Amino acid sequence: MGFLSDAINRIKPSPTVAMTGRVAELKAQGRDIIGLSAGEPDFDTPENIRDAAKAAIDAGHTRYTAVDGMAELKRAISAKFARENGLEYTTDEITVASGGKQILFNALLATLNPGDQVIIPAPYWVSYPDIVGLAGGEPVILPCPAENGFRLDPEALRAAITPQTKWLILNSPSNPTGAAYSAAEMKALTDVLLDFPDVWVLADDIYEHLVFDGFTFVTPAEVEPRLKDRTLTMNGVSKAYAMTGWRIGYGAGPKPLIKAMAKLQSQSTSNPCTISQYAALEALEGPQDYIEMSREAFQRRRDLVVNGLNDCPGIECPMPQGAFYVYPSIEGLIGKVSAAGTEIRDDEAFANALLDETGVAIVFGAAFGLSPHFRVSYAASDETLTEAIRRIRSFCDGCQEP
């Protein structure tokens, strides 16, 4: 269409959102669909947080706030970083937006010029390359295969950095793999970055609290304080407190970057929802019991799903350290034909056939930049996951050589 901008033509719709929409459409048609494609906790937002939002409404807190977040919330975020990450930020080094995605969008749009490169380890969250492209930058994709634990190799990082490199995006624990970096693994990466003083780090820590088996979460500026003045540490309340729809994300970094991000936000959305900000304030300052409860539930579900998928012919599923995703390989199914006659040419064909033939919705690996894999979100009840695994196993059992 001739009048559309070059920028909008550089991006594509989110594959995860598209699959979620297809699931809703099939359910509306009466199909028995198990949706394992959406990346959000299935638990209700904790009651104390909901009560705080209601109280904010009743108190008349329904007007504009400062463009990038109210002072009380910024103070709570500052306290969170000090308490949980050993990082000291003043309130003018903190920004609040309508979800973590807007933090990423603001940061990249405020800093990228044509030709600037952003290193993105793959598998990656589907929106990273598109936001980079929309901002005029060039995504540089670094494959991180399963044999590396889906983690970035320090020497591969060193080799990928050029004079045009502006950012490295690090997501730990990862969407879609659940892979996370230990302190030693993170230090190996930050040691490389110390040799390149013009490269900034965008740390996406949104799954910080969902780590398993005693794993200790770390963030780059915590591991290497000398990187703090060129690191944007991004987080939010969506995954930790089951608040995806409340749309509150936040970031902390150097004042000039935070000021530029606020300038951009002032000409786009202005302040995040005031009521949601009060809810987020309670999330950060109120009881933290929900975090451990959800962590235990997700670890149990992870074990159920990993064990079940590894019993399916043709599937190999690594054990992730965090988040609520697994990223199995279907290399053993490529080239086979499903019971209904569909050739499994690639992971997209697998995902479509699985949905059509069994009603289980997952997301194909090519959407995340590394094939042949698929992503399962195990943010669902044990009963739902058990039935989904039964259907996937039945589908795999039915796949034969052509």
Note the topology.
Blueprint: H1 6-9, H2 15-28, E1 34-35, H3 47-58, H4 71-85, E2 94-97, H5 100-111, E3 117-122, H6 127-134, E4 138-143, H7 154-160, E5 165-171, H8 183-194, E6 200-204, H9 220-223, E7 231-236, E8 249-252, H10 255-266, H11 274-285, H12 289-309, E9 325-326, H13 347-358, E10 360-361, E11 363-364, E12 374-377, H14 382-397
Parallel strand pairs: 1-10, 3-4, 3-5, 5-6, 6-7
Antiparallel strand pairs: 2-8, 7-8, 9-12, 11-12
Helix pairs in contact: 3-11, 4-11, 5-6, 5-10, 7-8, 12-14
Describe what you observe in this structure.
It contains 14 helices and twelve strands. The chain has about 400 residues and is an alpha/beta fold. The protein folds into two domains: about 5-45 and about 290-395, Aspartate Aminotransferase, domain 1; about 65-285, Type I PLP-dependent aspartate aminotransferase-like (Major domain) (Aspartate Aminotransferase, domain 2), CATH 3.40.640. Helix 4 (about 70-85) packs parallel to helix 11 and helix 5 packs parallel to helix 6 (about 125-135). The longest helix is centred in the C-terminal third of the chain and has 21 residues, at about 290-310. The radius of gyration is 21 Å and the shape is globular. The two termini are about 40 Å apart.
